[in-house]
Amino acid sequence: QALQIFAASARPLGSFYAADAAQLLEATAHKPRAHLKMSAESTKEATADGHKVTTVVEGTDATAAAPTEPGGKVAIVTGASRGLGRGVAAVLAKEAGFTVYATGRTTADLESLQAECADGAGKVVPCTLDLKDDEAVKAFVEKVGKVDVLVNSAYEGLAAQKAHLGKKFYERPLGEYDDHMSGVRWAYALSQLVAPSMVEAKAGLIVNISSAGGIFYFCGVPYGVMHAALDKLGADVATELKGTGVTCVTVWPGGAVTERTSFPGGETPAFTGRAVAALAAAGAEDLAAKSGKVLLTCELGAEYDFVDATGALPVDGMGVRGMLNEGFKYPLAGGALGDHTQSNNEGMKAVFHGY
Question: Is the pLDDT of residue 82 over 90?
Answer without folding.
Answer: yes
